[in-house]
Amino acid sequence: MDTTPRAIRSVKGFADLFEPWSALFTRMEDTARRVFGAYGYRELRLPLLEYADLFSRAIGAETDVVQKEMFTFPDRGGRLVTLRPEATAGIMRACIENGLCGRESLSRIFTCGPMFRYERPQKGRMRQFHQIDCECLGLVEPQADAEILLMLLHFLRELGIRDLVLDLNTLGCRLCRPAYGRALTAFLLTLSPEDLCENCRRRARTNPLRVLDCKEAACQALLRDAPLLPDHVCPDCADHFAAVRALLENQGVACNLNPRLVRGLDYYNRTAFELISSAIGAQGAVAGGGRYDGLLAQLGGPDLPGIGFACGMERLALLMDEAGRNRPDFFIAAPRAAGTALELAQVLREAGLCGEAAFSAGSLKSQMRQASRSRARFCLILGEEELAQGTVTIRDMDKATQHPLSRTDLPAWAAERLV
Ligand code: HAM
Fold this sequence. Notes:
Elements: H1 21-38, E1 42-43, E2 49-51, H2 52-59, H3 64-69, E3 71-74, E4 80-83, H4 88-97, H5 100-103, E5 107-116, E6 128-137, H6 142-158, E7 165-170, H7 177-189, H8 198-206, H9 217-222, H10 235-250, E8 256-257, E9 269-276, E10 285-291, H11 295-298, E11 306-312, H12 313-322, E12 330-333, H13 338-350, E13 355-357, H14 364-374, E14 378-381, H15 384-389, E15 391-396, E16 401-406, H16 410-418
Parallel strand pairs: 1-5, 7-8, 12-13, 12-14
Antiparallel strand pairs: 2-4, 3-4, 5-6, 6-11, 7-9, 9-10, 10-11, 14-15, 15-16
Residues 86-88, 117, 119, 124-126, 129, 131, 133, 135, 264-265, 285-290, 308-310, 312, 314-315 line the site of histidyl-adenosine monophosphate.
């Protein structure tokens, strides 16, 4: 009988993030601090665990997130707690509990960290995933909507991420949404209930807007002729939406008006948006957000408006990785000169580059293979000839070209790489 202990595996949908992911995450967080800081946002570190009713009250009892995706369990005292599926509800709770939105009427807050949703894992969809989340409380003006979108796009530009489609919609407000709800219910009543999925049959009665968010292809097909939100919003909401669009247009931001965008969480009203990439497969939404005036009051706080967004860090990392960023600058292949390789690597790092040197006694061929695996931009080769002549051969790994360089010129060569 085999008595070797079975290796313990990670929980399904929970990943270990080694390089390059961990480095990409650090870069995203550093960039978020710098860019969001310039817009007056301050960082908040939130607990991962909250009482379960925070999420059912904030996100909505009929949403997929609350109904199917939360990791909820009783703690040892018997109270139901939930691993946070998103950050907005926790930020609202923290602001109310710490009197933040009472003392100052304007708060701009951001947070980063892991979120948890019990979804079917696939590329870009995990059960533990990470978000960078920004919330702006206290501003009702359309300029606030435009500014937060400009900030999000600024942040993504700094990460080198472009070519995303910005889907935009208006979801109306607490005054006009009920009339839309009635129009939608009237439409749903024209359908045969048995053609809708079980969830939609129930939601048609309890929260008809959620039917629009159903992922079942059959339901989606039936909803093709459903009334559209922008056709039913009140004049104030229509004016607000027109102003947001005009402000974005003035800033050269192109939007795709998507009247079917409802978002998967109940707290939204007025502006709702998503940024979509076509480069990372089926899970292409890299960020989503919108306005949620009334949410703070609904959770027992002051009646302040709010708007925010969250980016999915795994999805952003896929785009950053796709673009070939975050590569080491150098790899030093030196089959018989580990000591010199160590010295040169130090020179290059002191000059601001990043990379590594091979210390093993392997052949030049195997060290060159290591250089390719490391994805370094340049391989510095120290063979017999180079050692004898006090030079190093610099190979551009992308162009497959190479040239000799005197070792004394290495700091200057490194400085050129930095500009
Ligand atoms: P959300 O659309 O549910 O919004 O999530 C925001 C982003 O998180 C998505 O666009 C996606 O990139 C990422 N994401 C969501 N679920 C997963 C998953 N299972 N695996 C990987 N990435 C995922 C919210 O969470 C709102 N709280 C955003 C917000 C902030 N609205 C206002 N303020």
